[in-house]
Amino acid sequence: MTDRVLVVDALSAGSGQRRSSRDSIGCGPRTVAGVFEKHDIHCRIHRIEELLEKRSLLKKFDHVAISAMTMDLPAVTKFVKLWRGSRTQGRIIIGGPISANPLDLKELNPDVIVIGEGEATLEELVTEKFFEKYVELSEIRGVAYPVAGQIIVTKPRDLIHSKILSESYRASTTRIIDYNAYQASKVYVEVTRGCSNYRRTNLRLDDGRQCSDCSNCDSDDSKVRMDCPEDIPPGCGFCSVPGTWGPPRSRTIEVIVEEVRELLDLGVHRIVLESPGFLDFMRGREPLTNPCHPPANLEAIRNLLNRLNALPQVANKTAHIAIENMKACLFSEDVAKTLVDSMMSSSPNIGLETGSEKQLRNIGKCGSPEDVVEAVRIASQYGMNPFVYFIYGLPGEDEETVRESIEIMREVSKAGAERIIMYGFRPLPGSAFANYPESSTKDELGMQLRKEADRINREKKDSYLGKIIRGIASEPSWARHGYTMVSPLEEGPLMTVPGGYSPGTLLNVLISEVLSSGLVAGEVVQDEKSNR
Asked: Is the pTM of the predicted complex or chain greater than 0.85?
């Protein structure tokens, strides 16, 4: 007899309703479902907001596995209360970035918390018949669990080797159909896991730890770079990726292409190759802990993209493959030429965070502001539309760093940046800045940065007026009754058009109005029905 497991996708749900990334489907919940499918356990994926609205869905399942981020704790708390109110039995597993600090989940009293990389841990729980009987959790690595009002944490589990990651664990493709409007969504497919930036912040942490200038972060020995005498988490101080997921590990080309092929055959139109740094793909021997050397493995990237471009839906341009995160210090003319020669139109997302050289060094960021400006210039010259990320409220921010950031914003805009993306600093468990105060939207310095980014982005949107953008209908507009939201199939802005269109309908939209720095309006001048 198989168990019916509800896989809850709470990613970016916040307090219970996603306000951003509404057209994105992450790979985490599908990866969880893949482990269940491997062991013939029946499962389905549901967004948490759908479950909070339709409580009757809970009756269809015996157990629940929740995938969430730290910011999603309010929504997860609401869901757990509903789940427990609907039954007297049924195991609760919680995993994903939210599990970085298990003590934060004590009040939820879950049966088990999967910490960090989850596939092998979840598989051991399944093979030990966790859903059917009592399991001695103290013997399982990489978990936490409640005992008498306390949270017990077991020894950490070793990271999964890249070969095993490709050969033993596959994200479910069939469960993509569980998502509403999946045909119009950006579906993320994991290419690499982990980050190569093993530099560290030199700011004093809340417990007094501070860089002692031991020079390990600058060593030519990749394993030496992993060691920090002060035990400061590696990577940018605001980021928990290298500390949680370790150095980059790449999945094989065959596995990536097969997953994309299956998703396209199920009606997906937009694929994003997921990676903290795409140019780390097969870049060097593991562990890869230098973010800028050696250079990108252009042969491996070329082989991957050529295989993906040969898929029928990509070749006939009814589907689009996108690449996002790239480190500026690895982005070169050779990289740009390789992407263009592979017919890969792209909006590379380049993280800058701050335009201050000093603050970059302080937070542990690799590269320099000049690296980002040059990467944007190269990408633009090769017909790409790069996005550049900034963060307001970072530790060490002051009037000087804000002034320098505004200057660099204008420089990258002139160099060809399509959009400035601004985030507020949020302390993440497992990061060096875990205990720093969260940024405030009312802070004057942050307001200056957001105002400048908004001005630049709105001016950029003006360039779309009168153009026809190929897009795909996603969902009804929240703000305009009788309108449909349309996502760009390839490159371009988010759009809204009059009329009702089914998710997955391909449309040509003539842009007529700029509504905000992130949204334009238009009219459908020709529509094409999805091939599905």
From this structure: yes
